[in-house]
Amino acid sequence: MRGYSSDEPAGPSTPNALSRGFGVLGDEWTLFLLRFALLGCRRYTEFSTRMPISHAVLSGRLDTLVRSGLMARHEYQQRPPRAEYVLTDSGRATWPILTAIWGWERTWVHEHSYETPPMRHITCGQETTPVLTCRECHRPVAVQDLDTAWGPTGGWRSSVPEVATRRRSSTRGAAVGHTFYPDTMAIFGNRWSWALMGAALLGVRRFSEFEAALGLPPSLLSGRLSTLREHGIIEQVTGESAAERSEYRLTAKGLAFFPVIAMTIGWSERWFGSDEGPALIQTHRACGARFAGELTCDQCGEPLRGTSIDLSALDSTS
Ligand SMILES: [Zn+2]
Ligand SMILES: [Zn+2]
């Protein structure tokens, strides 16, 4: 497992920044709400008219976003009473994650039940695809360019979102049958899938290694692996021996999801980080710096900013 130390920190496993960050964002409606909030929506009706969402689900998600600190609820004493949901700094800081998802979906997912219009970089005027780069040396970064080790709050058990923080399946049900980002949600929408994806990105390949790392029952593990395979994110190695056939590796499409994971890790550590230290310590081998990711424009090479991307094309409900 090149570049990855599997030694987990000793001590009890308590939910860390990754568990909390991926727990909040691993929900399709939440991603949609953030997307519309970044486009300027604030009022309940501005959200409800843009999404085929029930009132119960919408209020539940808005409450969760407020509780998690991504939105603040402002009430206005007027008739009828009015409330606005305003993004906080941590909520606004999700834009690179949504931008990375958008870029991946546009490049790798060709059957959409909705449109994926291009994203324009206002600085250069070109249609842009975000590229993950190192903030220190500005080189493009793929997962194999990093050395990764667990930090003081790391370990798989601590990094998987808790069941208690997940929405019940009945309230998630509204998105079933009308999934906008089925490929993204195959990775993001299940607490084990992102952990599995993380393990695969770090070089775990064998069924038994996934089992040992994540502590997952085999039936659950094969289920999650099948889902990722159906979406073309992971593939089973075709080999002669049984040992080879128990190996899985990420496809090009799976590897290309790394910017989404990297930006989510960075965001989670920034906003849910612990005084005891980070969950993961990643070093960019080429420059030796502690890795912090940044998205740049593939056309002009300049860093993308929340204000330098024309998101207006995203403001469609179809
Ligand atoms: Zn670097
Ligand atoms: Zn550009």
TrEMBL record:
Q: Which Pfam families match?
A: HxlR
Q: Give the originating organism.
A: Aeromicrobium senzhongii
Q: Locate the HTH hxlR-type domain: which residues?
A: 14-113, 178-276
Keywords noted in UniProt: DNA-binding, Transcription, Transcription regulation
Query: Does the keyword section mention Cytoplasm?
Result: no
**Protein name, per record:** Helix-turn-helix transcriptional regulator
Answer whether the UniProt record assigns the keyword DNA-binding to this protein.
yes
Q: Which residues form the signal peptide?
A: none
PROSITE patterns documented for this protein = HTH_HXLR (PS51118)
One MF annotation (Gene Ontology) recorded for this entry? DNA binding
